[in-house]
Amino acid sequence: MKLTERIKNIPPYIFAQIDQKKAEARARGIDIVDLGIGDPDLPTPDYILDAMTEALRNPDNHTYPPYEGTKPFRQAVADWYKDRFDVELDADKEVISLIGSKEGIAHAFLTFLDPGDIAILPNPGYPVYKVATLIAGGVPYQLPVNEENNYQINLSDIPADICEKANVLFLNYPNNPTGAIASDAYLEECIAFGLKHNILICMDLAYSEVSYDGYRPKSILEFKDAKKIAIEFHSLSKTFNMTGWRIGMAVGNAQAVQALGKIKTNIDSGIFKAIQVAGIKALSHYKEFVQGQNKIYQERRDIIVDGLNELGWNLPKPKATFYIWAKVPQGFTSASFVIELLEKTGIMVVPGTGYGDCGEGYFRISITTPKERLLEAVKRLREHNIRFS
Ligand SMILES: *Cc1c(COP(=O)(O)O)cnc(C)c1O
Q1: Among 39, 121, 126, which residue has the most ligand 1 atoms within 8 Å of its CB, making it the best to mutate?
Q2: Which residue among 21, 104, 200, 292 has the highest number of C-beta atoms inside a 10 angstrom radius?
């Protein structure tokens, strides 16, 4: 059997490797505090489960769903965007369902890149952007995001010939893995950049509802002219603890949304209709639920950030996401620190390099773990004198 170059060039998915390390440590009898993968530990709320249970019993929901999502689901997405962001969407032309946003993001590169076209991507960034670019035959052009540039790609650093050949710019705010947020001015700048160079602005908004201290992330579609050049990827996964359910949406520029739909129609057959019924329910009651949940995450965030800062770090408290992005102590690389931490303390974190080489020198903590375990992690760090210096 011959494997394609395409397959050979794909690095192993980082979380699959981490799962393996974890399994090995567990087999050695280590009690692991897992601050690795960002997957909500809290359950999907009851009001969604009730809607799902009822929908499951209805045989009408057992047949193939419409490719683009049921009309009531697309309308619920449009209504939610109106209520949450004050953005008007045409449910027929500007909204499609996704089998989780990862699916839509991966297919976006097939939709918007011809072989040789450039995708401008943040480094570090969600690994799917780069790999899906390669799968599509595109060329990733990665730019560093870091403390110095406020975790915002410096658009004026991009040479003219790259702007010429680029077809896609990916943004992700609130950001995984850094927890960074974007300024309004930057989002406006990105739209102007997209319009000027005819580059589709793709916003990954997976974390819009996980935010703290009164901060409310914005949709890029809130900004003037965004719909002319932007598509946004969103998902119920992180907001409603529904990562395993696989339901998300792409919204924005009608031509872009329809083009993505054309690719998807030939690859998948949509989301189980009962899940779409549950998704409608989720979106229509988001306010009460999200507030309570963010209180829980905020308390967890404070435990970790305060705990690390007592040990010599000097971290700001992220305003959104369930991630804390921190430097490794001197003398370590991302990988060597993650291994040292696991072996000495049983605490599992993700090396920054899992998100691109510019993540070197950093690690990511996820707070999707109960408070008691986070307190345990801080206690172990103290006991083993793991400090920042
Ligand atoms: C989790 C995540 C996604 C994908 O989530 P889905 O479950 O596929 O909707 C997309 N982007 C980022 C940055 C994420 O962290």
Answers
A1: 126
A2: 104
